[in-house]
UniProtKB/TrEMBL annotation:
<keyword id="KW-0067">ATP-binding</keyword>
<dbReference type="InterPro" id="IPR003439">
    <property type="entry name" value="ABC_transporter-like_ATP-bd"/>
</dbReference>
<keyword id="KW-0813">Transport</keyword>
<dbReference type="InterPro" id="IPR027417">
    <property type="entry name" value="P-loop_NTPase"/>
</dbReference>
<protein>
    <submittedName>
        <fullName>ABC transporter ATP-binding protein</fullName>
    </submittedName>
</protein>
<dbReference type="InterPro" id="IPR017871">
    <property type="entry name" value="ABC_transporter-like_CS"/>
</dbReference>
<dbReference type="InterPro" id="IPR003593">
    <property type="entry name" value="AAA+_ATPase"/>
</dbReference>
<dbReference type="GO" id="GO:0005524">
    <property type="term" value="F:ATP binding"/>
</dbReference>
<dbReference type="InterPro" id="IPR051782">
    <property type="entry name" value="ABC_Transporter_VariousFunc"/>
</dbReference>
<keyword id="KW-0547">Nucleotide-binding</keyword>
<feature type="domain" description="ABC transporter">
    <location>
        <begin position="5"/>
        <end position="230"/>
    </location>
</feature>
<dbReference type="Pfam" id="PF00005">
    <property type="entry name" value="ABC_tran"/>
</dbReference>
Amino acid sequence: MENVIEFNHVHKSFRNFQLTDLSLTVKKGFISGFIGGNGAGKSTIIKLMMNLLQPDSGSISMFGLNYSEHEKEIKQRIGFVYDENVFYEQLTLAEMKRMIKPAYRNWDDDVFQHYVQTFELPLHQKFKTLSKGMSMKASLAIALSHHAELIIMDEPTSGLDPMIRRELLDILRQLIQNGEVTIIFSTHITTDLDHIADYITFIHQGEHMFTKTLYQIEEDYAIVKGGLELLDRETEQEFVAIRKSKHGFEALTANKSRVEQIFGDMVLLERASLEDIMFYTKKGGEQYA
Ligand SMILES: Nc1ncnc2c1ncn2[C@@H]1O[C@H](COP(=O)(O)OP(=O)(O)OP(=O)(O)O)[C@@H](O)[C@H]1O
């Protein structure tokens, strides 16, 4: 399977934060969701993908090309949708389009018109008067109008109501149908990913915890419930983190089949949601740090 993006041992340090030894790939033709808590490093990774930041060490390859030699070529092939409104507030969508169009050799007015109609976008209304949903759709219409092969979106669903969010997710699904377009988006709203993501990349405190399909996650992870008598120093090692109460324990395992082997039917196994995985990973980090 072709990789559209490859990070190899990427390091990036700020004063109070490090991305450490980040190696990850993004597969062509799929939707990849980036999840992680506040400050985990998702936006930093997206900025590295866009060459808005450069790594301190390690390498980044986009479509098999590097930014130092092929920046223009790479940028032509990406549609970028950013959380904060990057558009000048005083401009209308029509004015914005006139400004952006010359930058892209594959700009397609018919495609732009198609999305203006589909999203019911007002062409002559100033951006500052658009709702959050409308302005997200306007950003998306522009990102989609130059036949981008890769759509990168930082928190596209934040602040959108459930109906508009669902609508946006449906649009993304349709976009990848031909297998040529790849989509990456970061989100806090993990339930968005249940609907559409093919791959989940989990970032925790600047580290790449995993990239897996939803199916693999369900195979590997589980919430385990049982009596306190089952826990000792050795069995506790099997869990990412454990919550104990006087009634028993609840824990997250990243190795469901091993837990099944060890505990058999003495424990109850339940599906772990992405939110469970994020929550327990954070708790585990606190407990064992
Ligand atoms: N230019 C910068 N200079 C210094 N620190 C920075 C810079 N950009 C980001 N950081 C820090 O890096 C960390 C990761 O930030 P980042 O925005 O990548 O996280 P995130 O996962 O996108 O978080 P959120 O979900 O809250 O948006 C934060 O602690 C942030 O303060």
